[in-house]
Structures are given as structure tokens and as C-alpha cells.
Design a protein that fits this description.
With about 250 residues, the chain is mostly helical. The chain has eleven helices and two strands. The two termini are about 35 Å apart.
Length: about 250
């Protein structure tokens, strides 16, 4: 099959969404990469999971994007997405900040250097998206997962789904992903009509033993969403750090 220049690799193919990593999977990959000689891949993995950036954006990151002039790593930074031009504020939790600091120091990278160069010259061009995609497949294969089911986009989806399952509002997750509407986020998380019907079936009004408080569905203003983001991250950051720090268990 001939690929036309500029077209996505999956254009015209019914490949379906790639699987997200579960918290157990994340800890297993983290343990595997922590045993490698270079901290590069562990840094790439943790930044990808934490920031929820697309592969094309990860490859454009420079040291100056994630660090202050004094060399300290930021816990959040402003970023404009390549695909949509939408601005997002990726968050880096404590563990990711430590891994980033270790990689930058070990590689002697300067502020203008691309972050993810692996074995290339330290001041060279970043690795390609294709190479990154293959790295992800190697990582999941190393912990016993089928590589066909996972790709670079799996890392972008992992924390988003983890947050959704932890009860974080769809509007908040969508804002962090750079989506324009909650509908786009629900589709991205895989909440389709079949999923909605399955959830509705679990709430059998004829079998309830007690009255549940009604859920209030409302639209949030930009200011409210920003304030909610701050509150959510204040509560969620310690849990996300634990996601990496806990003892890994290999499995799905």
C-alpha cells in the first residue's frame, strides 16, 4: 500500500482506538524502564503519561519548555498543540519532574535542546514519531502485553481514562486534552452509545433500595473550569505520583 506524503499512517484503515494502559500496566512499564542504563526512555514515558500530549507535540518539546531558567522543572507549562493550535497546560507530577531533572542533568542538555533525542547527538533533532511508536510497542511487549493493541496514542489516553474512572469531570479532562467540547472528550474516552446504554442498564430504578441524590448536569464557564482544574490537581497530584511510586505488578 503506497502512502501519500502528509497523510496519517492509519488513513483509510479501520484500526480502532489503541488500548490505554491501566495503573498496573503503568507501574510495570515504569519498573522495566527504570532498569535501563539511560533515563531517556523512562523520561519519555513519564512525560507522555503525565502531560497527555500527542506524539507530534512530545517530539517538539525542548528543555526550556519544561524548566525554569534556574534549571528547576516546572509542574505545569503552556503549550500550543500542533494538530489543533489549541493551547493546553500540561501538568507534570513530582515523580515526572524528578525523572526529567535526572535526564536533563545526565545528558548535559541545554535549554534550547530537544528533550527526546535518545542515542542521537544530544543537541540533535528529536526521535521520530514512528520511532517513538515502536518504542511503546517494545515497552508493552516487555511486560507481557500484545504490542498490536498499543501505540503512542495509548500513553495519551491512559491518564485521561484513569482520571475519568476516578470521577474527574469530563469538562476538566477535555480542557487538559485540548478538546473543544465534552462530546469530543466522551468519544475520545470511548463512551459511545453502547457504553451509555450499558451504564443506563446498571441503574435500574425499580430495584433501588434508597433514594439517590440527583446528579446536577450543568455547563461550566471558562473561569469555573480553570478553578476546578486547580482544585482537581491539588487533590489528584499525590495519587498520580503514587501511580508511579508504588511497587509494580506485571499484568493487564
Amino acid at each position: 500500500m503506497t502512502r501519500l506524503y502528509g497523510q496519517p499512517w492509519n488513513k483509510g484503515r479501520n484500526v480502532g482506538p489503541r488500548q490505554a494502559l491501566t495503573p498496573v500496566n503503568v507501574r510495570a512499564v515504569k519498573k522495566y524502564l527504570a532498569q535501563q542504563k539511560s533515563p531517556h526512555d523512562l523520561c519519555l514515558f513519564t512525560v507522555a503519561i503525565d502531560s497527555m500530549l500527542r506524539a507530534s507535540d512530545l517530539m517538539r518539546l525542548r528543555v526550556s519548555d519544561v524548566s525554569f531558567p534556574n534549571g528547576n522543572i516546572r509542574n505545569s507549562f503552556l503549550w500550543r498543540q500542533k494538530k489543533t493550535s489549541n493551547g493546553v497546560n500540561p501538568v507534570l507530577t513530582d515523580y515526572t519532574q524528578r525523572v526529567l531533572k535526572r535526564w536533563v542533568n545526565a545528558s548535559n542538555k541545554l535549554p534550547n535542546h530537544f528533550l527526546f533525542t535518545r542515542e542521537k547527538p544530544i543537541d540533535g533533532e528529536p526521535i521520530t514519531v514512528g520511532f517513538y511508536r515502536n518504542l511503546v510497542k517494545d515497552w508493552v511487549k516487555a511486560i507481557g502485553l500484545p504490542p498490536h493493541d498499543y501505540s503512542a496514542h495509548s500513553l495519551r489516553r491512559s491518564k485521561a481514562i484513569y482520571m475519568y474512572e476516578s470521577g474527574v469531570a469530563v469538562e476538566i479532562i477535555g480542557r487538559l486534552l485540548g478538546h473543544k467540547s465534552p462530546a469530543s472528550t466522551l468519544h475520545y474516552l470511548g463512551i459511545d452509545d453502547n457504553s451509555a446504554r450499558a451504564i443506563a442498564n446498571e441503574y435500574d430504578i425499580f430495584k433501588i433500595s434508597s433514594v439517590k441524590k440527583p446528579v446536577q448536569n450543568r455547563q461550566f464557564s471558562a473561569a469555573e473550569i480553570s478553578d476546578l482544574c486547580d482544585q482537581i490537581w491539588a487533590q489528584l497530584a499525590p495519587k498520580l505520583s503514587e501511580l508511579f511510586d508504588e511497587t509494580p505488578k506485571i499484568g493487564r
